[in-house]
Amino acid sequence: MPATTSDVLNLDGLLSAAELELRDTVRRFVQDSIKPHISDWYESAHFPLDIVQQMGALGLLGMHLTGYGCPGRSSVEYGLAAMELEAGDSGLRTFVSVQGSLAMSSIHKWGSEEQKTRFLPEMAAGRLIGCFGLTEPTAGSDPSSMATTARRDGDGGWILAGSKRWIGLASVADIAIIWAMTEDGVRGFIVPTDAPGFTATPIESKLSMRASIQCDILLEDVRLPDAALLPGARGLRGPFACLNEARYGIIWGAMGAARDSYEVALAYSLDRLQFDKPLAAYQITQLKLVNMLLEIQKGTLLAIHTGRMKDAGVLEPVQISLGKLNNVREALDVCREARSILGGNGITLDYSPLRHANNLESVRTYEGTDEVHTLILGSHITGIPAFR
């Protein structure tokens, strides 16, 4: 199949018929159910809860997990879905990531058989929403210093105390995966959000990720039975394994935001007349468009290669760091450059690039900042950890 105007490398040729079909299905969903409304959702800081079960029906929740009602799709298919969702908005892709890559993955990787059977089918269908509580007000990039504690009570259960910050979905979630320090190190717990002492408060006045929900969580002596403990997770390996699932999805998602911004800028430049000819006829505009296209093609190729490695079971965490660091950084530059082609019109919600750029400021920070991923790569290539 010949390459399209914007797929110069014919990257579609690297995808199977089934992968293309899945991508196109999600693309239609985004076109029909997200793009017509996203400007209003973003402006009003509204997350559309009614879209959750629609996503479940499409098999987008926990889609890379197998069994327990989960779709069992490949890593590449999950990545393609993430790319299309973020072409709509980072906030909607983030919901799928928090639900599937973080909350559901925690239970799937580390939960008991009873926990998996009880929670995963309902979460895959979108009838039960989960969140993932790791970050704290004073412990973002350094989770080993978390202050939230879980101690044994006299009845053999647990008492959780502490706080979490920037926790996606917490105020609308039914359960929270909370990571806490115990006498035996970091452990994970499934916490019902209606438990006495659990309070989730949405963070207001955000300039980014406005069509999604992030919260502060306060845990005031929340009592849990022993059955709430995730038995397989011990130490930071537990949450980090889930974070790497989310970071992997970002490698793809960021390219969706970049592609949408590029396509909007390209269409605008072909239609907008200045000095009696289209913006696209000027050399400077073509330079901007070409530079954007180069990074999108390279970043998408990186995502596909990373996905193939993940499906082969050979993907390493440092490779995920490389992909997340590169693709988010380049996507943010693409969105800003696309906004420049739109001129003053580009600062309105009539066009997507600045909204995408604002969102990517959050994506650049969560699941590991640029600085953290740089240090991970620096340690890998020099053999010298420089975190402290």
UniProtKB/TrEMBL annotation:
One of its GO terms (molecular function) is flavin adenine dinucleotide binding. Pfam families: Acyl-CoA_dh_1, Acyl-CoA_dh_M, Acyl-CoA_dh_N. Keywords: FAD, Flavoprotein, Oxidoreductase, Transit peptide. Its cofactor is FAD. It is an enzyme of class 1 (oxidoreductase). It comes from the Bacteria. Its EC number is 1.3.8.6. Coiled coil: none annotated. PROSITE patterns: ACYL_COA_DH_1 (PS00072). Residues 18-126 form the Acyl-CoA dehydrogenase/oxidase N-terminal domain. Pathway: Amino-acid metabolism; lysine degradation; Amino-acid metabolism; tryptophan metabolism. Residues 235-380 form the Acyl-CoA dehydrogenase/oxidase C-terminal domain. GO terms for biological process: fatty acid beta-oxidation using acyl-CoA dehydrogenase; fatty-acyl-CoA biosynthetic process. It catalyses: glutaryl-CoA + oxidized [electron-transfer flavoprotein] + 2 H(+) = (2E)-butenoyl-CoA + reduced [electron-transfer flavoprotein] + CO2. Residues 131-222 form the Acyl-CoA oxidase/dehydrogenase middle domain. Belongs to the acyl-CoA dehydrogenase family. This is glutaryl-CoA dehydrogenase (ETF). It comes from Cryobacterium psychrotolerans.
